[in-house]
Amino acid sequence: MSELVTRRDEEGVATLSLNRPEVLNALSPALFEALRGHVDDLADETETIGCVVLRAEGRAFSSGNDLRAITAGERAPSRHYQAETLDAIEALPQPVVAAVRGHCYTGALEVVLACDLLVASDAARFVDSHGKWGMTPTWGMSQRLPRRIGLLRTKELMFTGRAVGGEEAVGLGLANLCVPDAELDQQTAELARAITENSWHSLRAQKKLVNEGQRFTLAEGLAYERENSTGATPDTLVRLKQFGSKKA
User: Fold this and answer.
1) 235 band by pLDDT with thresholds 50, 70 and 90
2) What DSSP assignment string belongs to 31-83?
């Protein structure tokens, strides 16, 4: 049996790939357990991994929650295991970039919303189909989507269940980039490399300041930044010397 989620490390970037292409990477409880194992490992690997990419094998990121697995009696270890796994992705110290092609439906959309950045192929299709099945979200859709694209657009997408393509996803603020499908992996890798060229200490601190700051009012957030920002990081002097030597 093949691994449900694979991992490949290269030059400080860890790439996690959902690996059930034969069922459009449907999100079974077993797949979530595999994903959670990798995420928990990465949380402790801040000295060797500076950025994480989350992608999928095959022609679709994911068709969403695996209803067949649930019907067959497959269960996650705890009631809110999937939602807590997405919390763990969001809480990773490293920036996380989602790469999406093809279907990104419902539960899968909730997964990528837990990532920091998103690169969509021009073949991507983002859909919230909770209403189609008479269901309501429990993995974070109602909270993360309006914070990403705004309240008005969130309600439209949730109420209608219509599909959003890659280019529209950029316009909505759901995705950072829309690229030709054949270039998705390459352009995502280039973005990840651009991230890891910067100070990993800064990356981790910036992510924490931005994420935690969303919990506060503006005044509270400004105070939080002043009280919790590290300012210069352990590699600041090294980087300044390197900059000076290049100019010379």
Assistant:
1) confident
2) HHHHHHHHHHHHHT-TTT-SEEEEEESSS-SB--B-HHHHHTT---SSTTHHH
Residues found in the chain: 248
- Could you tell me which of 108, 150, 147, 146 has the C-alpha nearest to residue 127? 108
Write down the pTM of the prediction. 0.94
DSSP β-bridge partners for residue 43 = none
CATH value of 5-196 in 3.40.250.10, 3.10.180.10, 3.90.226.10, 3.40.50.2300: 3.90.226.10
What mean pLDDT is predicted for residues 180-200? 98
Q: What is the 3-state secondary structure (H, E, C) of 217-247?
A: CHHHHHHHHHHHCCCCCCCHHHHHHHHHHHH
DSSP 8-state class, residue 123 = T
Domain boundaries, the chain: 5-196, 200-247
